């Protein structure tokens, strides 16, 4: 985890680095730090807590130099403290690091035996001592870094400055994201594009095993052996204001409200409505390859795993392809049985989730073709897989995933329709109907959003409870899981998602007036069953908050609170049903005064195991 940034250029170094860190804070915010030059000396400022604590200790006009590096931390090794905050220093060098050095203990012991003194508990500090151990022998910074990385195991994105060369900066990537921003006589290097997007749209994606050297002559990219590489420059089309709050109180609320637009963008270009066909524009080869596949395995983490669970319903029902779903961190370590004819799909908003990346690599080593469903263009996952289906949610800043989830569901629906039509399991008429319904979804989401106040009222009635149970059946079961995850991560309330039919096998023992039960009930084939579950809860003195479809007069008298969503076909119900659950979690969190966008202990992009 962690966000890093480096800048080299003639503008105010400190404000550019701090501004970049602010846009990287979603990656971690246990502590922050910055290094810059003043009168030829490297100044180090570090502070525990959010970036605002660092800003509070920065002097006025701190720097007269042309380069600087910064870090926002998500602690792995060593608690959040000033000593453990980055940048770390050794000799005349300073460094920021994102990732984990797995063999840091043995490296540290060796370096300590050589007389080096460590001031932190981090794994990161060994990197700069290791580099310095070569640098002190008179090797150039470039060669010292190359020699150091040969001894390091793990994942890293690193930026290094040397007091001896204030107009140079070295950055290295292996297993953690790192992107170069190319401006007018200035350069950025950062964990993610929003860090510098308001300054330049020209980017170069670094690959694992590459390093970049910035100097007054410009930039050079090379591999770890020093061989120079020629890399393509890309233009980012995102609007920087897309990454701002746009008048909403929190990024999460803004991102919830962006879902109609995000879904339209994700569908755009993929549909021939009259023919009832989905076109995988730009990724036609996926469909042709996948058309004859025997089985699909979908992997992901957190919310993306929930999308995968919905994907199983969609692909099995619409395209009649057997689907297995696995949590990426489980898949990668259990030697999964994959055979010819299988396809593996990795779902990830960020495209940088370490477990998902590792799982995809595992599938690739077994010769299995891979597809990613990913939001961040050019992310590691999108480049690792054989093909990519981009969702177009736009930058998701809030740690709690919202628009990424519903666009993932949209992408999975499109894929299911595509494969259903190609494999002959979905008629032209049925394809047209489903596509027609999909086109209605953005409008229907707006209708749900128009009732935000109603959900906020429910939230205000229930925000003091300590435990919640979420029940759904069939395709709405993963939505129950997602609703519970949203609530727990941003309000710190214990919440469990459960398939409603399983309630009687254990969780029913928990039911009493102190645990509200959120029930997802649509008039589908399991409607009668879910009504029975509601009765079971009520019979035990439980409190029920129901989300049901408009016109459902049967459920209203049976429950304590009810909120309606527009009528929707079963396949698309997860998209629509997710919206009020996001709003519920959001307003509960606001009522509790929690940090909605940056909940404790979490980070947006989990780039470590
Ligand atoms: O970037 P990814 O989709 O791979 O991230 C996966 C999870 O870390 C992520 O969905 C996480 O569970 C979110 N905090 C959920 O809101």
Characterise the protein shown here.
The chain is α/β, with parallel strands linked by helices and 609 residues long. It has three domains: 3-242, Aminohydrolase, N-terminal nucleophile (Ntn) domain (Glutamine Phosphoribosylpyrophosphate, subunit 1, domain 1, 4-Layer Sandwich), CATH 3.60.20.10; 245-446, Rossmann fold (3-Layer(aba) Sandwich); 451-609, Glucose-6-phosphate isomerase like protein, domain 1 (Rossmann fold), CATH 3.40.50. Helices cover 35% and strands 24% of the residues. α4 packs across α5 (141-151), α7 (259-267) packs parallel to α13 and α13 runs antiparallel to α18 (573-592). The longest helix is centred in the last third of the chain and has 22 residues, at 428-449. The model has no long low-confidence stretch (mean pLDDT 93). 5-amino-5-deoxy-1-O-phosphono-D-mannitol binds next to α9 and α16.
Q: Topology of this protein?
A:
Layout: E1 3-8, H1 13-24, E2 31-38, E3 41-48, H2 51-57, E4 67-73, E5 88-90, E6 93-101, H3 104-113, H4 125-135, H5 141-151, E7 154-162, E8 165-174, E9 179-182, E10 187-190, E11 202-205, E12 210-215, E13 218-223, E14 228-229, E15 234-235, H6 251-257, H7 259-267, E16 271-272, E17 277-278, H8 284-290, E18 295-300, H9 302-318, E19 323-327, H10 328-331, E20 342-348, H11 354-365, E21 370-374, H12 380-384, E22 387-390, H13 403-422, H14 428-449, H15 452-462, E23 467-472, H16 477-491, E24 494-499, E25 517-521, H17 527-539, E26 544-549, E27 561-565, H18 573-592
Parallel strand pairs: 18-19, 18-20, 20-21, 21-22, 23-24, 23-25, 25-26, 26-27
Antiparallel strand pairs: 1-4, 1-10, 2-3, 2-4, 5-6, 6-7, 7-8, 8-12, 9-10, 9-11, 11-15, 12-13, 13-14, 16-17
Helix pairs in contact: 3-4, 4-5, 7-13, 7-14, 9-13, 9-16, 13-14, 13-18, 14-18, 15-18, 16-18
């Amino acid at each position: 985890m962690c966000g890093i940034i480096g800048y080299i250029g003639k503008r105010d170094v400190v404000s550019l680095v701090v501004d970049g860190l602010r846009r990287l804070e979603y990656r971690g915010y246990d502590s922050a730090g910055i290094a810059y030059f003043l009168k030829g000396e490297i100044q180090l400022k570090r502070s525990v807590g959010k970036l605002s604590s660092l800003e509070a200790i920065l002097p006025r006009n701190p720097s007269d130099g042309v380069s600087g590096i910064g870090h926002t931390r998500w602690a792995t090794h060593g608690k959040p403290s000033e000593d453990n905050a980055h940048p770390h220093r050794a000799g005349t060098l300073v460094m920021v690091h994102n990732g984990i050095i797995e063999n840091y203990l043995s490296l540290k012991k060796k370096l300590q035996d050589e007389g080096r003194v460590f001031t932190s508990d981090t794994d990161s500090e060994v990197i700069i001592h290791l580099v310095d151990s070569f640098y002190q022998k008179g090797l150039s910074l470039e060669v010292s870094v190359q020699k150091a990385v040969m001894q390091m195991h793990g994942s890293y994105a690193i930026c290094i400055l040397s007091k001896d060369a204030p107009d140079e900066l070295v950055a290295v990537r292996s297993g953690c994201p790192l992107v170069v921003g190319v401006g007018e006589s200035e350069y950025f290097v950062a964990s993610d594009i929003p860090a510098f997007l308001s300054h330049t749209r020209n980017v170069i994606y670094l690959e694992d095993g590459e390093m970049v050297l910035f100097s007054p002559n410009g930039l050079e990219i090379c591999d770890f052996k020093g061989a120079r590489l020629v890399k393509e420059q890309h233009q980012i089309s995102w609007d920087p204001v897309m990454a701002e709050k746009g008048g909403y109180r929190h990024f999460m609320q803004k991102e919830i409200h962006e879902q109609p637009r995000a879904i339209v963008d994700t569908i755009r270009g993929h549909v021939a409505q009259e023919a009832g066909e989905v076109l995988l524009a730009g990724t036609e080869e996926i469909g042709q390859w996948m058309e004859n596949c025997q089985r699909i395995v979908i992997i992901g983490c957190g919310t993306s795993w929930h999308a995968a669970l919905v994907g199983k319903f969609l692909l099995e029902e619409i395209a009649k392809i057997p689907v297995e779903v696995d949590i990426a961190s489980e898949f990668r370590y259990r030697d999964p049985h994959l055979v010819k004819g299988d396809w593996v799909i990795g779902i990830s908003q960020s495209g940088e989730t370490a477990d998902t990346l590792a799982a995809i690599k595992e599938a690739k080593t077994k010769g299995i073709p891979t597809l990613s469903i990913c939001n961040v263009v050019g992310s590691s996952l999108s480049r690792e897989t054989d093909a990519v289906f981009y969702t177009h949610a736009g930058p998701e800043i809030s740690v709690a995933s919202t628009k990424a989830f519903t666009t993932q569901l949209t992408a999975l629906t499109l894929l299911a329709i595509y494969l259903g039509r190609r494999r002959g399991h979905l008629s032209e008429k049925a394809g047209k109907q489903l596509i027609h319904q999909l086109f209605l979804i953005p409008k229907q989401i707006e209708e749900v959003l128009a009732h935000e106040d109603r959900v906020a009222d429910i939230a205000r009635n229930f925000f003091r409870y300590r435990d919640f149970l979420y029940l759904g059946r069939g395709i709405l079961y993963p939505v129950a899981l997602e609703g519970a995850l949203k609530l727990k991560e941003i309000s710190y309330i214990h919440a469990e998602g459960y398939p409603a039919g399983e309630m009687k096998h254990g969780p029913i023992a928990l039911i009493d007036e102190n645990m509200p039960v959120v029930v997802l009930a649509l008039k589908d084939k399991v409607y009668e069953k879910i009504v029975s579950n509601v009765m079971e809860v009520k019979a035990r003195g439980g409190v029920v908050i129901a989300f049901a479809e408009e016109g459902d007069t049967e459920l209203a008298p049976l429950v304590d609170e009810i909120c309606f969503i527009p009528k929707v076909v079963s396949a698309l119900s997860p998209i629509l049903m997710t919206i009020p659950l996001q709003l519920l979690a959001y307003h509960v969190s606001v009522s509790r005064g929690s940090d909605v966008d940056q909940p404790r202990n979490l980070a947006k992009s989990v780039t470590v195991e």
